[in-house]
Amino acid sequence: MRVVLATSSKKRAEILRQTPLNFEVRPSDFEENLDVNKYTFTEFVEKTALGKVQDVYQKLRNDSQPPDLIIGLDTMVCFENRMFGKPNCESEAVDIIRRLTSGKPHHVYTGVVFLYRGTLVTFTETTKVFMEQLTEEEILAYVKTGEPIGKAGAYAIQGLAASFISKIEGDYNNVVGLPLYRITFELKKMLL
After folding, report:
1. Are the CB atoms for 53 and 113 separated by under 8 Å?
2. What is the end-to-end Cα distance of the chain in Å, rounded?
C-alpha cells in the first residue's frame, strides 16, 4: 500500500514515524488563504487539510502506482474566539505570544483528512494549553530566538516554549501538529 503524508513539516513526519506505517512525505502547494470568517475553527482546519490532500492527490494520481492513502493536516491555535496561524514577522509573533500568555488557556485544533482509495475521512482533534504569564522582556526574548516564526500560534511546544507551558489537557502531539493517538485509532478502524 502506498501511503503519503501531505506535509512539509519535519516534526509531523517524525511523529508519524513512531508508528510501523510505511509512508512517504510529499509537501502540498495548497495556498492556505481561506477566509477565517466563513468557517468554524473545526471547519477551517478540516477544509485546509482537505485542500492539502487534494493538491497532493492531483500531483500523484497519474503515477504508475497512485497513493492508496493520503494524510493531510492543518493546525491552528484559537484564543478568545479568534484563530492564530503562523506569524510572518516578529511584531506579529510578539502580539500573539502576549495574548496567549495572558493567564487564560487556549486551544489547538488539528484537522485531519484521510483520502483512502476514493473515500474521505475527516476529523479534528483539540488540545487545551495553559501558558504562564510572561513579562514583556520574556516575550521579546522568546521571539528574538526565531522559534515563533512559521509556527501556528507563534510557539513550538517541543522547543523553548515548553518552559512556559504549565500544563495541557489532551494530546501533546496534537499541539506539535499531528494527533498521533487519534490518527492511529482512526486508521485501525478504517484499515482493519
Report:
1. yes
2. 14
For position 35, what pLDDT does the model report?
A: 87
Residues 6+ apart with CB under 8 A from 150: 86, 87
Query: pTM (2 decimals)?
Result: 0.94
According to the model, what pLDDT value does residue 32 have? 83
Among candidate residues 35, 55, 74, 95, the one labeled active-site is: 74
With left for phi above 0 and alpha for psi between -120 and 50, is residue 150 left, alpha or beta? left
Q: 83: pLDDT confidence band, cut at 50, 70 and 90?
A: very high
As to burial, measured by CB atoms within 10 angstroms (0-12 exposed, 13-18 middle, 19+ buried), residue 105 is: middle
How large is the average pLDDT for residues 180-191? 94
* C-alpha Rg value of the chain to the nearest Å: 17
CA distance 100 to 67: 39
137's CB contacts (< 8 A; 6+ apart) are none
> Domains in the chain, start-ordered, CATH in brackets?
3-191 (3.90.950.10)
Confidence band for 191, pLDDT divided at 50, 70 and 90:
confident
Q: Is 74 a catalytic residue?
A: yes
